[in-house]
Specification:
Elements: E1 2-4, E2 15-17, H1 24-32, E3 38-41, E4 55-59, H2 62-75, H3 82-85, H4 90-98, H5 114-119, H6 122-128, H7 135-145, E5 146-151, H8 155-166, H9 190-199, H10 201-219, H11 223-235
Parallel strand pairs: 1-3, 2-3, 2-4, 4-5
Helix pairs in contact: 2-9, 4-9, 6-7
Length: 236
């Protein structure tokens, strides 16, 4: 069972901190099938509690996340920016993202300046508690309060650890909210990728730092658990 965007209540009910465009809605579908109560924070940043509330999240390479955001807005008519982005070239979208004269904050829903808010260091903002520039606080919060940081590009491995921690039933996976007709990241101009990474330096460092920890966790598995993991990945 899912409880959306409500205060965490007890340590028994974990909180999934959903950073947009990281595969969260696929997880929501999985969570809905569980008997446990799972908090999903879709529009809330990390918050520290005095009681030991446990968090988990999914990260995505920031360049891939930005590209996904652009094509998602163009494909989803109910998105607040759809009318303004639908016919906007990717380069123009990137220029809004790069414009440091636009304050990196949330504007009214249909304000085109929200491109910057939705693309620049968004993961750092969510994980630090609201500041897109406070990389160190984001790292501290992960280290102290998160049982798991998974990855969109290692989704099955991330679900494996999630299952190990919580013993949830992930017998089938229905991929949700996939943006069709978008190019793969290696089909995007390297200059565009570089421009995205330049303004997402905190998110890039956070992603690479957490990814190193994840790989270390993988390599430290004993032989039996590695076999379990391989079987888990192969079944999907």
């Amino acid at each position: 069972m899912i409880i959306f965007d409500k205060e965490a209540t007890t340590p028994e009910n974990p909180v999934f901190l959903h950073i947009p465009k990281t595969g969260g809605k696929t997880l929501w579908d999985l969570f809905e099938r569980q008997q446990d109560t799972i908090h999903v924070w879709h529009n809330r940043y990390f918050k520290e509690y005095q009681k030991p509330i446990r968090f988990f999240t999914i990260l995505r390479d920031p360049a891939d996340r930005v590209i996904s955001t652009y094509y998602y807005i163009r494909s989803y008519e109910r998105d607040a920016l759809y009318q303004k982005v639908n016919n906007m070239p990717l380069q123009e979208f990137i220029e809004y993202m790069q414009n440091d004269k636009i304050e990196n904050k949330l504007y009214k829903k249909k304000d085109i300046r929200n491109i910057r808010y939705r693309t620049v260091n968004l993961a750092t903002r969510y994980l630090s508690g609201g500041d897109p520039n406070d990389l160190e606080q984001a790292k501290k919060n992960i280290t102290k309060h998160f049982d798991l940081v998974g990855f969109t590009d290692m989704y099955l491995e991330s679900l494996f650890f999630m299952n190990k921690i919580h013993d949830w039933n992930f017998s089938s996976i229905n991929r949700k909210n996939k943006t069709d007709n978008r190019p793969k990241i290696d089909e995007i101009s390297p200059k565009i990728i570089q421009s995205i990474e330049q303004v997402n330096q905190h998110d890039k460092e956070l992603y690479e730092w957490a990814k190193r920890k994840f790989h270390k966790k993988l390599t430290s598995l004993d032989k039996h658990t590695k076999k379990e993991l391989n079987k888990w990945v192969n079944q999907f």
